[in-house]
Structures are given as C-alpha cells and as structure tokens.
Amino acid sequence: MPKITTLLFDCDNTLVLSEVLAFEACAELANEILAEQGIADRYTGHDLFTEFVGQNFRGMMTSLQKKFAFELPPAAFDAYVTREEDQVIGKINAALEPCVGADEQVARLAASNRYEMAVVSSSAGRRVEASVDKVGMDKYFPRSRIFSAATSLDKPTSKPDPAIYLHACKVMGKQPGECVAVEDSKNGTLSAVRAGIPTVGYVGSYEPEQQEEMRGVLKAAGADPIMADWAEFPTCLEAIEKR
User: Fold this and answer.
1) Which domains are present in the chain?
2) Which GO molecular function, any one, fits this protein according to its record (predicted)?
C-alpha cells in the first residue's frame, strides 16, 4: 500500500454539526415545491435526513422529482438550489458548531505537517466555505482545498458518485491509494471507496441509539475502521497506514 500523504475530510456532520440545520432549510423548500406541484406529502428535516443523508440539495430534489413524478424547469430548479444555499448559510452563520473533538484533531494534524489536507463535500462550495469559516477551520482548509460535488465539477453531481473524490485527487496531484477519507454517511463512504480511497467511518454525530446501526451501514459501504469519537482518529489512521 502506498504511503499515506493526504487526508480528505467530508464536512457535514464529520467536521461540523451542520446536517440538522441544513435539513431544516431543505424541508422548508421541499415542502414549498411539493405544494406548488399539488402534492400532499410533506417532509420534516428529520424525514429528509433519514431518507437522503449524504446527498446535497440538488440530489435530493432530483430524487423527489423521480419519486413524485414531476419535473422542475432547469431555471426554477437552479433558483431553488440558490435559495437553499442562502437559507442554509444563514443558519450556519447563526448556530453552527464543530463536531466534538474534530478541531483538536485537525489542529494536531496540521501541526504535525505530515499530511496535506482538504475538504471533499457534496454540499455547495459557498456552504462549505461558510462552515469552515464559522468554526475557525479556514486556517486549515484554504479555498483551494475545498472541493464541492455541487460546484467544483463541470457537471454538478452528488455523492455516492466518486467524481468529486477523483477530482480532488487530480487537482492535488495524488493517487487515491495515498489518501484517507473520513465520512459519516453511506453515500459519502461509497463515493470515497468507489474512488479507491481507504475510508474511516465516523458515527459520532449520530444519536447514541443510532450509532451501532450506522457502524453496520458504513462498514457495509466499505469504511474500515470506524470511530465514534474523534479522539480515536490517530489509532484509525495508524491502522490504515500499517496495512
């Protein structure tokens, strides 16, 4: 196995506790869209999180269109995507917090100067930038090291498509095998694993009663090892490096 040189972190609910805030905003817009289409179904933020965790808003709306058999004109679709970004960023700026222990570990890794580091997310670039800015991680992740499946690619996509991980590797001049990803969702794990990147699963952002179930989900998607606390990351990384 090649020497590990690069760490690629998912953002939402891996570095920062953003998913609850984001899915609240997504639910508001999803319900507006469903109402305009004459569809009676409604979603809470928790409903969307359960069904679409790991997807960005564009991916969620594409899935909802298929599920309920309707189609938004491209201009309307893009307008909703922009509105969602704005509403989520507003919530992030007001209330975002880092995942417990994440900042300490990222700071330690940065101080060691052993690895290059980047954020690889499905979320829109503006949202990821707002997230790292809000929790003070922008000093570790400059704009050139933030990769978004929604905005960094010529054709926007979402995890589990591996395109954003492959793009990050290409831009950084890295082979997938010399990278390690950290992911909290099935879709994110599949994205990294399909790109050929060894992946640490993180379940610490889930409620305690969900963590064991999510261990199974992430393991089945290819994550190994899996941690419940960021304090475990050095041991997880060492285990991968020893393979």
Assistant:
1) 6-18+97-241 (3.40.50.1000), 19-95 (1.10.150)
2) phosphatase activity
